[in-house]
Amino acid sequence: MPLAAALMNLLVNLSQRFSIQYLEQLPLRQLFRLIKQLEKQHGNR
Q: Alpha-carbon distance 3 to 7, whole Å?
């Protein structure tokens, strides 16, 4: 899967769990940490 599509997929999944306003307030570093945590939870890596 291309990286852009994977990121869009993650953003859609995140937006279903959290509000978009909440995500927009997060610094990118925190967002990536959150994404890595979600990946671990879902066993992607």
A: 6
